Amino acid sequence: MSEYSDKALLPAGMCDVLPPDAEIEAKATESLVEAFSRHGYERVKPPLIEFEESLLAGSSSAMAEHTFRLMDPISQRMMGVRPDMTLQVARIATTRLKNEPRPLRLCYGGQILRVRGTQLRPERQFGQVGAELIGSAEPAADAEVVRLAVESMQFLGIDNISVDLALPTLVPAITQAHGVADEVSALLREALNRKDAAAVEALSGKLGKDLANMFTTLLAAAGPAEATLGILEKLDLPEAAAAERAQLVSVVEIIRRGAPSLTLTIDPVESRGFEYHTGVTFSFFAEGVRGELGSGGRYLAGANNGEKEEPATGMTLFMDTVLRAIPASVPAKRLFLPFGTAIEKGRSLRDQGWITVEGLDSGEDAGEGARHLGCSHLLTNGEIREI
């Protein structure tokens, strides 16, 4: 292997983002934050690294296996590099901003780092942009966050967005009400995550036939929102599970009022990726684009820092996937300014929106220099001409 390739080699899941992709990502990030701001969400900036006990306490412990750890040479305490920004924002809300009026609307954008990637997302470092609505348990809050995500991505030109809703608390509410043993619940959760109806039916001896049938019905119910809700409404659910169902129904109704044509699906037994969530969750997809554009849902803010817990809901968009969904941009027009062009002239052209590239060699052929540096236009004798 050559010396150059040795230096260019990066760890698995890491990559250099080159022109023009780095600029496209930066502009998309700022456009999304701007869209959130128009809805009253204020930007915060959490640190890249925190002490481990605050970063991974309480609800955040679900992210422990994804977290890089290192020793702080100053305090001699263990620190973690953030694997997600949602719970950092929740910490800010329930500590630094605990006296601010509720509901509190915050947004953010930044890089996160994880110990390992997944099959669908092999990247270990990628950008997140998101928004959190803290201090409201109303279904209107969940619906607002869903619409915010969809409208903000549409602001970037992304079409054919669909939203998959889930209720990861539904199955635990049913099993707890029926006194299902923990080891059986774990086997059931594994079978449901695999979408394995036969494995669920095989547990009927431990669950009872009626309860096993309920779970196979839930498993088969995944699909378009209205059809799934119709199936859920017919089930005789325990009180706590019925309350979860009612919350989901309300969220769908409110989303529909604001976005009647939005493609909505529901998977009532999905829980993967929603380890710390406490209610309705959502994942965003776009037709023809691999992977999730983002995800989010309801959780308890403050569960990781000893403060009083608050109801919260939020969403995070994954910039690596979002960039794959953004329509191809028109290459920027770059104007070559021959050596000796007046500084005032270049400034005037930039004020008009041109990207200017200045020649540095008085003996250089301006046309060749412009082509060599990828310019689309050339300033010659005070006039702009296309190359």
Task: Present the secondary structure layout.
Elements: H1 3-8, H2 21-38, E1 42-43, E2 49-51, H3 52-55, E3 68-71, E4 78-81, H4 86-94, E5 104-113, E6 125-134, H5 139-155, E7 161-166, H6 170-177, H7 182-193, H8 197-202, H9 204-207, H10 209-220, E8 223-224, H11 225-233, H12 239-258, E9 263-267, E10 281-286, E11 294-301, E12 310-318, H13 319-325, E13 334-337, H14 343-351, E14 355-358, H15 366-372, E15 377-380, E16 383-386
Outline:
This protein has 387 residues and is of the alpha+beta class. Helices cover 38% and strands 22% of the residues. The chain is elongated.
Walkthrough of the structure:
The protein folds into 3 domains: 11-159 and 287-329, BirA Bifunctional Protein, domain 2 (2-Layer Sandwich), CATH 3.30.930; 169-269, no CATH class; 334-386. It is built from 15 helices and 16 strands. It has helices at residues 3-8, 21-38, 52-55, 86-94, 139-155, 170-177, 182-193, 197-202, 204-207, 209-220, 225-233, 239-258, 319-325, 343-351, 366-372; strands at residues 42-43, 49-51, 68-71, 78-81, 104-113, 125-134, 161-166, 223-224, 263-267, 281-286, 294-301, 310-318, 334-337, 355-358, 377-380, 383-386. The strands form 3 sheets. A 9-stranded mixed sheet has the order 1-5-6-12-11-10-7-9-8. A 4-stranded mixed sheet has the order 14-13-15-16, with helices on both faces. A hairpin with an 8-residue loop joins strand 11 (294-301) and strand 12. Helix 5 packs parallel to helix 12 (239-258). The longest helix has 20 residues, at 239-258. The radius of gyration is 26 Å and the shape is elongated. The mean pLDDT is 93.
